[in-house]
Each structure stands twice: as structure tokens, then as C-alpha cells.
Amino acid sequence: MWDPTQYTRFRDERKRPFFELLSRVEVDAPTQVADLGCGTGDLTRVLAERWPGAVVCGVDSSVEMVEEARRRPSPEGVRFEVGDLAGWEPPAPLEVLVSNAALHWVPDHAALMGRLVAKLAPSAVLAFQVPANFEAASHRLVDEVRRLPRFAPKLGAGRARPVETLERYESLLAGLGMTVDAWETTYLHLLPGEDAVLQWLLGTTLRPVLAALGAEEGRAFVEELGPRLRQAYPAHARGTPFLFTRRFVVARRGN
Ligand SMILES: C[S@@+](CC[C@H](N)C(=O)[O-])C[C@H]1O[C@@H](n2cnc3c(N)ncnc32)[C@H](O)[C@@H]1O
Fold first, then answer.
1. 129: Cβ below 6 Å to ligand 1?
2. Nearest one of 30, 17, 57, 54 to 252, comparing CA atoms
3. Is the CB–ligand 1 distance for residue 166 below 6 Å?
4. CATH class for domain 4-253?
5. Residue ranges of the domains in the chain?
6. Of 56, 155, 216, 225, which has fewest CB within 10 angstroms of its CB?
7. How far apart are CA 13 and CA 240, in angstroms?
């Protein structure tokens, strides 16, 4: 379902939040670090550079992403596994658990937080970033096309939006004995290229939609969506302005 080339098309816009997340993680010399939903592993390798003494495990449920991650050169201590982040069990308790732009694919964040905290060593840090852009025109338009009679029978009611509010993350994690630093940032991306918002969505949101539709219906879906997006997001000489909100949580076990 995932396409590493399409996903990395907007690499700079997609990796900036990871660095902003990581800048708030204060851990000196962890030995066990994991990156859940690691994709092509570029950011997993950044974790290994930051903590050279650590075993850093990148986990992703997409075979294509993990194969690509393994193909690229990695520092010592990095390994990649195919696995579901909801069920994956580390070989030893983790001192740092990072997840960038992946947890929103897993439903029921109340239960998920419990499962993630259970993987942590004492004083460990859980740090994640999730998109919170579900009310944006881009998502509304994807939903509008999903509901067209041609596509609705195959696509159903649509994906639940499992991202919680900052207050809810704080209270869920505080209830699990964590001290929480949480914030939200809205980026104004100026996306390069033609049909830039469509290209952005083809890297993420549209993956399951197109996988469910198959090649021919998928093309028809994109033909319906493209003009709607062009109208909602006019391109300028400087790029296509695209507002994108993300939520960040850094939680430490204990006080
Ligand atoms: C938007 S990409 C983010 C990749 C990487 N963290 C980054 O920031 O470049 C989301 C990744 O989450 C993975 N993913 C989605 N659901 C998952 C699950 N249940 N378990 C593990 N990985 C999952 C996808 O395969 C994809 O590689």
C-alpha cells in the first residue's frame, strides 16, 4: 500500500516536525531506542546518530518501507523489522520510544497509550507527533469524493479519525504515570510542483483509498479529486500554500 518514492517527495516538509519533536527529548545515553512506523528509516538513522551507543530498532508494518529502509546505509546499531506498532514487543524495555506521523493509523489511542507505556523502562521517554489536519479542505474533499455513488459502496463510511486532543493525551498519559509536554503547530507549507496537494495526499491519506479501489477506479477517483483540490488550493509562483496542523507529545515516565 505504501510507496516510498511518493512519500519522500515532500521530504523536507515531512521531516521538520520530527526534528522539532526530537529537540524536546532530553535523554542522555539510552541503550534501547525504537522508532515505530519508521517508514524508509531516514529518521531512525537520525536517532542512531544522536545516540550512537544505542540499539535503535525501526518497526513498520509495510514490507515495501522496511525493504527500502534496509537498502539504505545505516550506522551501526540500527535494525529494521516488519511489525505492527500496536502489537510489537521490544526485546528489552525501551528508554526512548519515538513515533513520527504514524500513530494516527492505529485506532483507539486510549488503549494504544497503555500498550506503548508498557514497553518503557523507568524514566523513559515516549515522544510522538501526529497530524491533526482532518478538518482541512483537503480531507473534506477526499470525503466528498468518497461519498460519490461510484465509490461509496467500495469505500464505506470512511476512516475514523483516531487522533486525540492535547488535553486528552495529557490526561491519558498522566493517568499512566507520565509527565507530559504537549503542543500543536500549524505549518504553512509552500508546496512545489503541479497538483501539489494531490501529490502530497497520494503519499499518505490516499494510500488506503486507492488500495481499496484498484487501478481503474483509483484513477477515476483521482480524476474527480484533482480539479476540486486545484480550486481549493490555487498554486502561486512561490508554490501552493498548504496549511498543516500537527500535534506533539513528549511524555516522561515518572516526574
Ligand atoms: C506517514 S509515514 C511516516 C514514516 C516515518 N515515521 C517518517 O516520519 O518519515 C507512516 C508510516 O507508518 C506505517 N504504519 C502505519 N500503520 C502502522 C502500523 N499499524 N504498524 C506499523 N507501522 C505502521 C506506514 O507503513 C508508514 O511507513
1. no
2. 30
3. no
4. alpha beta
5. 4-253
6. 216
7. 13
